Amino acid sequence: MTAHSLKGRDLLKVTDLSPAEATDILDLASELKIDRTPRLPGRSLGLIFGQPSTRTRISFGVAAIQLGGGFVTLTPQEMQLSRGESLHDTAHVLSRYLDALAIRVLSHDELEAWAEAADIPVINALTSVEHPCQALADALTIKERFGQLDGLRIAWVGDGTNVLVSLAQLAALTGMEVVAACPEGYDPPEDTPLTLIRDPREAAAGADVLVTDIWVSLGQEEERDRRLRDLEPFRLDESLVALASPEAIVLHCLPAHPGEEITPGALYGDHSAVWDEAENRLHVQKALLALLLG
Ligand code: CP
């Protein structure tokens, strides 16, 4: 398949992409870091965010602007959805105004309902199941640092979150291996393509990439005490960085809680690539929009 097959499609999960399509998005993202030719003049992106966001919401808006288009940000509470108008009718109307929708809702079923009802591409801007745009930015960052993806080993340490699921799915498409060290009770879904172990040191040994994610995600605030206790031995710290490859990079999708899932030394140290990773959200999303709407 070629990138042309992405036109008009949705991106709800990483597995919506073929290996060639994932590669095309990453290659175009690298190109668009330099080439600012407006590729989508006059096109409009709708951003529906039911949960807080800094990176995803702003990078999608700026992506639309840099491509020559514009964006509208909406919360469900601002629309008649909050007064009982159906998702189906809302999606139909928005499809008459907009060229694409990026949606953040915790319920993946709700995201799928939006995609089913809308006549325009719908992009997953994070659900509790997957965060595909984050995985694309992570892969771009890894590719920039190592020159290729094939054959690299990623060590994940901590909670088996939606971010891990998307990263593992993208790794499977691009020839990388993921070894995840998660405590019992925090495993990713069984069908996630990775090696699951319990020892963070074993995962980190010789790894090319070290990754973690926050311990208390959106909607998990009531579980905070238990999560902090269970995940304490799974902190990404300097001792794990020292076990990894000398060229290893540290990734974190952010927002970070230094002192919880990652130490300040790992987050801000010489091996950290998290700021490039955050910037790359913009570039992969520009590529994605250009390919879905091009
Ligand atoms: N990484 C990420 O999705 O960040 P935001 O929640 O700020 O969008």
Task: Give a short overview.
The protein has 294 residues and is of the alpha/beta class.
Q: Characterize the main sheet.
A: 5 strands, parallel
CATH superfamily membership of the largest domain: Aspartate/ornithine carbamoyltransferase
Bound molecules: phosphoric acid mono(formamide)ester
Output the CATH class name of the largest domain. Answer: Alpha Beta
Strand line-up across the major sheet:
7-6-5-8-9
Shape: globular
Round the Cα radius of gyration to an integer and report it: 19 Å
Low-confidence stretches: none
Number of helices: 11
Helical coverage, percent range: 40-55%
The CATH architecture assignment of the largest domain turns out to be 3-Layer(aba) Sandwich
Compute the average pLDDT. 97
In whole angstroms, how far apart are the ends? 16 Å
What are the secondary-structure elements, in order, as H or E? HEHEHEHEHEHEEHEHHEHH
Global structural class: alpha/beta
Number of strands: 9
Looking at the structure, the CATH topology of the largest domain is: Rossmann fold
% residues in beta strands = 5-15%
Domain count: the total is: 2
